[in-house]
Amino acid sequence: MSLLGATTDLERVGDEAKKIALCARSIHAAGRLILPRVVELQPMAQLVREMLHQATLALDRLDPHAAAALVRRDLEANAGFRAVLARLAGFMVEDPRTISACIDILFVAKSLERIGDHAKNIGEHVVYAVRGMDVRHASAEEIEDLLRT
What we know:
CATH topology: Methane Monooxygenase Hydroxylase, Chain G, domain 1
Number of strands: 0
Mean pLDDT: 91
Shape: elongated
Radius of gyration: 17 Å
């Protein structure tokens, strides 16, 4: 059952990737002259890509210890989303002509944040599959403590 849940999360990652592609196409098709540069988006995308890679490796190897690391990294992804949101809010206040572009970029950032959530969920599913422990609401420290016993 746990691995079925991980499969569902992988499918949802695909849905989020499709949303990102649609936003990218929308941004490109609009030919927006004013496109805010959000430097926080690149590190966030890299982080989430690495998280997804870690999650699939944990699933492939049935390695429950990866879950704690994924929980920690999910907190970083959430902070990255908040940073992107703050930057975009500033752009929209300074120049209302950027609102449409900022909304598309915000949707990309939210999809990246959700992919991070799904990667974390996959790690949690792995812990459940291997150890039979439900760690969905546990902190990284709590997961590490549980895995030591």
